[in-house]
Amino acid sequence: MKEKVVLAYSGGLDTTVIIPWLKENYDYDVICVCGNCGQADELEGLEERAISSGASKLYIEDITDEFCDDFIVPCVQAHAVYENKYLLGTSMARPVIAKRLVEVARKEGATAICHGATGKGNDQIRFELGIKALAPDLKIIAAWRDPKWNMNSREEEIEYCRAHGIHLPFSADSSYSRDRNLWHISHEGLELEDPANEPNYDHLLVLSTTPEKAPDEGEYVTMTFEKGVPTSVNGKKMKVADIITELNRLGGKHGIGIIDIVENRVVGMKSRGVYETPGGTILYEAHQQLEELILDRDTYALKTDLGNKFAQVVYEGKWFTPLREALQAFIESTQKYVTGEVKFKLYKGNIIKAGTTSPYSLYNESIASFTTGDMYDHHDAEGFINLFGLSTKVRALKLQEAGVLKK
Questions:
Q1: Are both 160 and 28 inside the same structural domain?
Q2: Which of 3, 226, 242, 406 has its CA 20 to 30 A from that of 203?
């Protein structure tokens, strides 16, 4: 009996050509696994394509809810943003896919897992760290790094398929390299490879319209959260996946969440891409709008620092690590009282606050008001400032004694 290999399968040319390549070079029984993270119509025709290319079986695993509940929500609660812009759309999805690859490999009795990520990108790291953490005994085949791999262009991949009697509806024409799931879609390649070029948004955008072409009238949206988890949009209670779907519709309509960034990849190079994250951008902003009303100053400051660290850990593929678990435990402890309602207006790429309420709000109008209240005496500030600024004053006095600071 042949050994089995589980292939992370997207249905694109790069992963489709790997099927006959694995059979020819390793004589494996190829089991394809596509993790459905909400990539919509990209799933059409996958089974026929995989089987016709030589796979013995295709699993299309619906992991959308797991992706949303167990991977997206912790990142939203952490306000995890890589390098101040990237909302981790691909980074969050890879560990849940790796987890399902391992589960199918165990079910099928496979001895190896293969992926089609290139040797230049981050995904090879994310897939392989996930597999190593969950199944250290399984062999990992990275096709693009394998010494037996000798295809370096779409033309060569198409020709390889034809030579093996596989005729597929792929074109050799260049196009954007895209990754899509429920949270976002990313675009790389073509004019984006030169940072001097403006993106061709009319040709590029899939989920969104540009702010210039968005409606001239804004739209109000109301959301509720319970313990940091979104629970409803405009009065309608929904599960997280459906909330993101609805926010994608609203955000895409109003040009929300389109970013053009040059990011530092884990492997050391800079990469330029355009990301559409309409619903995710709204969700992050709404959660933060509520959270700033509830968290105390010190917790908010530390959570901001650890949120940046959480983003780095996720970006680098270290989801299945004690560090991520420890960071998430702290973050979850801060969400106990993040419950309430936020209202905002979407208008031509902007998310404009329109009111926030929570039964756990720390905002006290009698203290914050410019009108003097019973709980705050302006005179108390003098002693506080004297102590708070003591080290600053002592240093200045010493500099005067040394003649460095003139009187």
A1: yes
A2: 242
Radius of gyration in angstroms for the set of CA atoms belonging to the chain, rounded to a whole number: 26
Tell me: the pLDDT tens digits for 259-317? Answer: 999 999 999 999 999 999 999 999 999 999 999 999 999 999 999 999 999 999 999 99
Q: Are residues 282 and 379 in the same domain?
A: no
What confidence tens digit (pLDDT) does each residue in 209-227 have? Answer: 999 999 999 999 999 999 9
42 within some domain: yes
Domain boundary among 153, 173, 193: 173
Q: Report how many domains make up the chain.
A: 3
Contacts of 156 (CB under 8 A, 6+ apart): 150
The 3-state DSSP class for residue 59 equals strand
Catalytic residue list: 14, 94, 123, 177
Q: Confirm whether 69 is domain-assigned.
A: no
Q: DSSP secondary structure string, 358-377? A: -TT----HHHHSSS--TT--
Structural domain range at position 208? 178-295+338-357
Query: Measured in whole angstroms, how far is the alpha carbon of residue 214 from the centre of its chain?
Result: 24
Question: What 3-state class would DSSP assign to 177?
Answer: strand
Pairing mode, strands 4-8 and 112-115: parallel
In a domain, 395, yes or no: yes
Q: Is the pTM of this model over 0.70?
A: yes
The three state secondary structure string of 64-83 is: HHHHHHHHHHHHHHHCCCEC
Q: What angle do CA 302, 306, 307 make, to 5 degrees?
A: 110
| Residue carrying structure tokens 């991949």 | 157
3-state secondary structure of 205: coil
Instruction: From 338, 343, 261, 263, select the one nearest 303 (Cα to Cα).
Output: 338
Do 395 and 273 lie in one domain? The reply is: no
Query: Which residues contact residue 253 at a Cβ distance below 8 angstroms, ignoring those fewer than 6 apart?
Result: 209, 214, 215, 219, 346
Closest to 183 in 3D by CA, of 80, 32, 317: 80
Evaluated on CA atoms 262, 271, 154, 56, the torsion sign reads negative
User: Could you tell me if 343 and 373 lie in one domain?
Assistant: no
In a domain, 105, yes or no: yes
Residue entry with tokens 């250290």: 136
* Dist CA 46 CA 50 (whole Å): 6
